[in-house]
Design brief:
Layout lengths: L4 E4 L2 E4 L12 E2 L2 H11 L3 H14 L2 E3 L5 E3 L2 H16 L7 H18 L2
Antiparallel strand pairs: 1-2, 3-5, 4-5
Length: 116
Amino acid sequence: MLNPSAQIGDIQCGCGHPLLVIAGPCVIESRDLVFEIAEKLKISVDEARKASKDLMTFGAFIDISETEFEAMHPRFTVVNMYRKMCERENIEFKRNKVVDGIGVILEKPYDDARTK
């Protein structure tokens, strides 16, 4: 059984780790923004890129180009991450009320953060 995880600075996320909520820009669309995010997280630009690619593998981000990534709305992200997990674990993908509930819970903080 796979146990995928990602390292973001000092924080480990993924299966077997506490829930990690990432709030911030929905699209990383410039080199300067990558440097700014890396600086705030106190990680290197290479670590920031690797974390983005790892999160893309989990279904949390989608890639736009080699250096651009986009986060999706929490409801879509949670379902997409669940779908990716089902693929990795060879589990039939079907509706999951717990997964749907997580998306609903994350929706309000996400929308509140976007409107500030």
